[in-house]
Fold these 4 entries.
Entry 1:
Amino acid sequence: MTSLEAVSTYLPPTVPVTDLRESLGLSDQQVRRFTRLYGLNGICQAPGESETDLLLAAAGKLAILAGQEHRVRYLIRAKGLRTTAPYPVSPLLQVREKLGLRHAQPLAVADHGCATGLLAIDVAGTLLAADGDPEALALVVAGDKTFTRFSQWVEDVSIMGEGVVAVLVGSGARDRVLGYEALIIGREDGVIDLDADGAREAKRIYQDAIAEVIAKALDAAGTTVDGLRLVLPHNVNRVSWTVAAKNLGIPRERVFLDNIERTGHCFCADPFINYRSACDLGLLKPGDRYLMTSAGLGQSFAAMVLEH
């Protein structure tokens, strides 16, 4: 069974949203909306660090990896953005070399937007199951560098942070995946950018779609909303999850939103950033079931139920 053997994060320093007013071209009204309504008071940014630097900083905190590099069969890059570095730079290959993962096959998964992190865990579990070696591991690295203005924010929805994670995936008993579901409601032309029509459609379907994919993941795991100790969502904004919790019948206090005000929306790394924080705070006990969930541009949705 797919399991999360270890999760580490790297969160760069937080920059107040008010300091981003000029670079993002935000109006006073937009600043107020992001801070007072959405709860996005600060965004973690690392202007002096490359994507490779960020990913290595997260992976370097995986103490369990030291001396076990030979067991890592796959190095998987979960990309919230299709392009994360200028050609011909490959942060993934640089990470592989720096970590000494000579036995690891590098690959990337994308096109699920900010739901790609959960997809990468499922891909890792599928590859490890087919590999047949119970000692084999996969290392998933997630989170993106906002190196273009396009990648720095989603207009009137969220502001993107540069927090990253490293997740060591195995087939043991730690944080076992009980159910995973993905849902894509794409356009026929394949466009994922939020133009005016796309934004209206995304807003119209969002709550129903996130509820649908969560219900399917719960069903696959053989549990219900009442069986969840905690929900670890993507940090898009406070309002969307306040509404979703009410629609799903989940008590507000079970949805972990503490990081929104200090990280911003860190692409597909968010659920794992929230996992690390929840564990550090002692919010998950052995046997607790919890839900990770995300949504991405292109109307992609994902949910994963795990047991701590």
Entry 2:
Amino acid sequence: MPTLAEFCERVPKAEVHCHFVGAIPAEVAWRIAARNDVPLPADGPATLYRFDNFHQFIDRYMTVATALRRPADFAEAVYAVLQDGAEHGNVRYRELFFNPTDHHHASYPDMLTGLLDGIAAAETDLGVRCRLVPSINRMQSPQIGVQMVEQVVAHRRDEVIGIGLDASEPAGPPELFAEAFAIAGRAGLRRTAHACEDYAGLDGGPPRNATTCLDLLGCDRLDHGYNILADEAVVQRCRDAGVPFTCCLPGSNPVLRPARIESIRTMLELGLPVSLHSDDPAMHGANPGEVYTFAAEVLGLGIAEVGALALAAVDATWLDDTERSALRSEFQAEIDRLAGER
């Protein structure tokens, strides 16, 4: 009979808010950097992902990103990411963010080749499926975002299903990226954006950013979203439209505010379509199984609520209706089986 923690670990999961670089296990990042003679700001894998604030996190993240140089590096890293999720949380499906413009020493075609090779190998070996969501780094210029999306469209692959917008929200309000998102929309790509996020020691995005993402950028889901709670009209708009929110808990790293826990609690109580994801699991020290376990502990969730969160993540995916329905049925059957063991 599984305990609640064991149920949280074993319940099948879909993740649609997970960043490629932030999910690379430290030992794999260290090995790739050493192979490419790229110095990292640590004395070994054990200290590579130690940081005290958001700025240090971004600096460490960008350093690891620049260490990836060749298709084989991307293939090795993404395989490790998918293997780690499967082994530490039973992640069956991922829509993985990656920022092409953060990888300064690789062309988009080369990184795409490597990522797709690693994804194909993981599906064959592990049964884990993955799709890619190239994401604009909003700390770079809107024109760089336009150029990135043009590259994505020019080298279109079925496994690349949409685009995102991430990094420090105050540095790049969503309206600045309307042109890039319009290009993506015309190409038939799905769209999401980090909006109304919270930061330790920094102002987060205001509630109006959510409506800007929906109305101007054409997003059909939002990543994070906690700060919409400051505006009842925005909450009502999102609830009426059934906008999925891909939320992430702080895990063991103190960079993210504990207030996020209460925000997620309130969003669930208000009936918003919330799902839970690991964000940057390796760098933030919380794998998918730990995220669910932590959520159950701090939010007081039981088996039924944890199972509902797993299904909500499936509902938030960009799979077509047939694939989503099949995955949901697969998850529901396994959730029922696990719950029946208790």
Entry 3:
Amino acid sequence: MENKPLPPHVFIFPLPYQGPMNSMFNLAELLCLEGLHITFLVTEYIHSRLLTSTDIQSRFNSYPGFQLRSVSDGLPDDHPRSGEKFVEVFDSLELKTKPLLKHMLLTSSGGLRRPVTCIIADGILGFTCDVAKEIGIPIIYFRTLSPCCLWVFFCLPKLIDAGELSLDQSDNMDRLVKNVPGTESFLRRRDLPRFGTFGDLADKTLQLSKKEGQENPRALGLILNTFEELDGPILSHIRTFCPNLYTIGPLHAHLKAKLSPQTTSLESSSSSLWNEDWSCMTWLDSQPSKSVIYVSFGSIATLTKAQLIEFWYGLVNTGFKFLWVIRPDIVAGKDWESQISQDLSEGTKQRGYIVGWVPQKEVLAHPAVGGFLTHSGWNSTLESICGGVPMICWPYFLDQQVNSRFVSEVWKLGLDMKDSCDRVVVENMVKELMEVRREEFSHRAEEMAQVAKRCLSDGGSSFCNLHRLVRDIEDMMIQD
């Protein structure tokens, strides 16, 4: 009997941050379900955190074709690797990790695994394309940020030439932006990504993002975590740069739709870098339908003590129940805890539940949650859309600025609170979302959740695009 040929071997390399990794782990599991072999590469720093906060290996135990490997990011153990240090992480990956990656790719076959058929790398890691072309392996990029922000990045050369990024704090930040086609009627200067100091065109993050319009088309295709029905107009513009798009999102919901109810328990399937506190689910079980405002600013955003106190007063003063994620590192230092007044403490005891981290997808799917005060990270935005939960957006940096504007003005799924951190504004926005315009926002959010669900069903746009991606990877193996 003839031996069955080995399946394609896909090598996945995410940007080493929580959001991009979540998306790529979901993609890896989807490809495992399609019978592909996967090598998933993380940095040693990330690997250590995964082992501390979750048993990631248990998630993939049922997939013999999956292996998790680690590589040095070239930074010292005590490097913070947080938001403002992003460029240092990127520079070190390009300088120190690139040669290690090349060696790993050249020696990745053996036993029951064929040589690498295809690389799927985060599209901001341009050096991965250099390595792929040097050794002759096809590469597909995956951009885990929002398409609307990616399109702004592609337009950065025009924005710079037109002087629309030469800003200072005295400029009219509500002036409409003219050089991002398709957004001329609603995108304001204040909605553009924040690159370091206002007006600093030499900012390294800005220059890195500017390269994406030239970098991303180098790959054979571009995977996006969205669905055609949500981002269709923007996707048509992106296709002028990258014609071969695979829109296969929302990935977390796509994976859930593929898995059987008998699959591993929810708690063991997490890839969170923080320990999840599941006690919040019991607390939610005791709350009435759509009565709780859920608050989380993601895994990177930080607050000042003053901002924390303003949010706290605003939430307590609404009179609504609230579930709030306050990460251990969300405020520098610990002395802020001693500054919580008696009235805040009492108000929280009556109406609030505060934890260090939560299983967010499950929280947003809980019937007690009626609104989400969010930093507008793309994963959080998609999880809120799939949960049918309207949003109040308080963006922190990069794509979050653009996302929040699309939530309020394009998709009509909530309110944009950017550039404001005042207890009265917080209180009024929560009341508007949860009370004054509750029916309007709830109806729109539930409608969009149904659209997202349909795109994942047999014949839906994301369902078909995933199968096209798998078929294209299999064709690479045949051509090998």
Entry 4:
Amino acid sequence: MKVSLVPIAENERPTLERLFQFYLYEMAACLALPLNAQGSYAYRPTLLDGYWTQPEHQPFFMVVENDAAGVEAVEQELAGFALIRRYPQDPARYDIDQFFVARKFKGQGVGKQALANLLNQFPGKWQIRVLVENEPALAFWQSAVRQVVGQHYEHSMDLDVDLMMHFFRFEV
């Protein structure tokens, strides 16, 4: 299985917004997000605007390519998204703002491959922020960061605006 990062064009934003609902569904377990009357999770759409208006923001779809045995065609499937940016409080550092792997692909190395692809494409200083309440994400990021950068990272707890978070910081 090969994982590619495909830049998200502005006309593909509706696809990202549909995936974002699945992301919010998973985050609801940590943040107790309410469903609105239409059965979706409310969020400020402006949260995503910067990914097409600010050059330091980069949106990507994760695409999995499966080469089925005995079949010549390679099947591609959308597997999630990664939204990265320069961190506003430290513009010299890349920040994974939002990261989502569809449930079907969890535990198959898709997220770790996507992380490795991001780091190869954007060498430099990085950080990953994880909500304290999001224990599954914390376990994933501890494993993924260790696999991709070895022991060469810093793990700390700090406030990010008004939320306590785990921070993983490293340079590649």
